[in-house]
Amino acid sequence: MYRIDSMYEPMIEALLSARAENKTDRWMASAAFWLGRQQIYNVKDYWLALAAKITVELPASEKDAIIEQLSKQEITLVDAASDWPEAPPSLMSIVAGWSPEPVSVDLQAYAATKRYAVETGGIVFGDMAVSTDRQSQALIAGAYAYVQANPTITVNFKTANGFVNLTAAQVRAVANAVGAHVQASFAAEDAVVEAITVGTIKTAADVDAFPWPVVAA
Questions:
Q1: DSSP string computed for 71-124
Q2: pLDDT of residue 215
Q3: Which residues span the domain enclosing 143?
Q4: pTM for the complete prediction?
Q5: Helix axis angle, 107-119 to 168-198, nearest 10°
Q6: Which InterPro entries has this protein been placed in (predicted)?
Q7: Residues 78, 36: one domain?
Q8: How far apart are CA 73 and CA 29, in angstroms?
Q9: Each residue of 31-89: pLDDT tens digit?
């Protein structure tokens, strides 16, 4: 009987399934980088090479949003990416052992992965591309607290496209936009989970088709 024992198994299923269908999406790159950083199943090099290749295949704006969140070593891998990496036999053996029959994706876990990709995928505010990864969220929250205490200050703020100078009012507007995006992402996941529970969302494609908040494009 097939059973998912951890959060990353459905993530791997969804990622490998999408790859088999020759899909490239920002969530796939984010998931593969995470799997590599965690060294899941001791195939770190494969996950990072896969993430790098997916990133290269993304539209320029999505690629830039991913690169904004990478380490120097990971950026080097993206720059060097060429052919699609071959999945290691050890990994495929593990995946095959999960079930002798076609397996269904844990839709709630898939929805959580989708929400994370949307939540951290960035937004466009005015003419600024604003990163919304967890570190950026914390920095923006800090900037918001800073201007609350110093309402006449001008803040040197780094967007995905470079530095800009923002007034306290503009910082508050950016922080509110990011907060609204994050909350909308979780609200969307909540609605998807409810739809999964009542049976109106039945597949990963249904999860993808749900009207998630718009990320930076």
A1: -HHHHHHHHH--SPPPPPHHHHHHHHHT-SS-----HHHHHHHHHHHHHTS-EE
A2: 79
A3: 107-209
A4: 0.56
A5: 170
A6: DUF4376
A7: yes
A8: 15
A9: 999 999 999 999 999 999 999 999 999 998 889 989 998 999 999 999 999 899 999 99
